[in-house]
TrEMBL record:
FMN binds at residues 62-67, 77-78, 83-84, 106, 141-142, 186, 196. Keywords: Flavoprotein, FMN, Oxidoreductase, Plasmid, Pyridoxine biosynthesis. Pathway: Cofactor metabolism; pyridoxal 5'-phosphate salvage; pyridoxal 5'-phosphate from pyridoxine 5'-phosphate: step 1/1; Cofactor metabolism; pyridoxal 5'-phosphate salvage; pyridoxal 5'-phosphate from pyridoxamine 5'-phosphate: step 1/1. It comes from Chryseobacterium panacisoli. One of its GO terms (molecular function) is pyridoxamine phosphate oxidase activity. Residues 173-213 form the Pyridoxine 5'-phosphate oxidase dimerisation C-terminal domain. This is Pyridoxine/pyridoxamine 5'-phosphate oxidase. InterPro entries: Pyridox_Oxase, Pyridox_Oxase_CS, Pyridox_Oxase_N, Pyridoxamine_oxidase_dimer_C, Split_barrel_FMN-bd.
Length: 213
């Protein structure tokens, strides 16, 4: 067994104080996200973990890319027939998680998910590189396939088919809007006395509290 008892880090880069935070969590997210995006040490500031609950009751987590955020919530795209898509169909609640270790920060978001309007999914799909569009058509995401060649051969066929024409968005591919009802901001602090500020939606207002680390 590898002993990790002494594998520690001192957190001392910043602080999260009530007098300095925004009253709306989306505005607070925007401030932190901009800092992460401008950090040369963070290559994908929009990478987030999305956790859903599957039929056996076990959560399943995977990394996806945040593609937009508005006052309503957070937007990402996927195959609706994938494991995450099927889990969301059965249970509309999910948890989004951002971790930016170089800033010693993480954000945990509990949200209700709903499909985006088709015209919004169309717009994003056709803004992607053509190779990514074809990849969405080629892959029966989360299904068992015989081998790698299955995908590569199917891709070659579709490249010829759509060489001089637009790739239609598959009906089973599109976006989700995650409407948050709880957002926690975590800032690492010395001696493991981390700052944890949580926003909880009550009716139409956000209640702000501090949690013990």
């Amino acid at each position: 067994m590898e002993n990790l008892h002494d594998k520690r880090k001192v957190y001392e880069k910043s602080q999260l104080i009530e007098s300095e935070i925004k009253q709306n969590p989306i505005e607070q997210f925007r401030d932190w996200f901009l800092e992460a995006s401008e950090s040369p040490m963070i290559s994908e500031s929009n990478a987030m973990a999305v956790s859903t609950v599957e039929e056996d009751g076990c959560p399943r987590t995977r990394m996806v890319l945040l593609k937009a955020y508005t006052h309503e919530g957070f937007i990402f795209y996927t195959n609706y027939n994938s494991r995450k898509g099927k889990a969301i169909e059965n249970n509309h609640k999910a948890c989004l998680h951002f971790f930016w270790p170089n800033l010693e920060r993480q954000i945990i978001i509990k949200a209700d998910l709903e499909k985006l309007a088709e015209n919004l999914s169309d717009g994003y799909f056709h803004s992607r590189p053509k190779g990514s569009q074809l990849g969405a058509v080629v892959s029966p995401q989360s299904q068992v396939i015989p081998d790698r060649a299955f995908l590569e051969e199917k891709l070659k066929d579709l490249e010829k088919k759509y060489e001089n024409t637009e790739v239609p968005r598959p009906s089973n591919w599109g976006g989700y809007l995650a409407r948050p009802y709880e957002i926690e901001f975590w800032q690492g602090r010395p001696n493991r006395l981390h700052d944890r500020i949580i926003y909880q939606l009550e009716d139409l207002d956000w209640k702000i509290s501090r949690l013990a680390p």
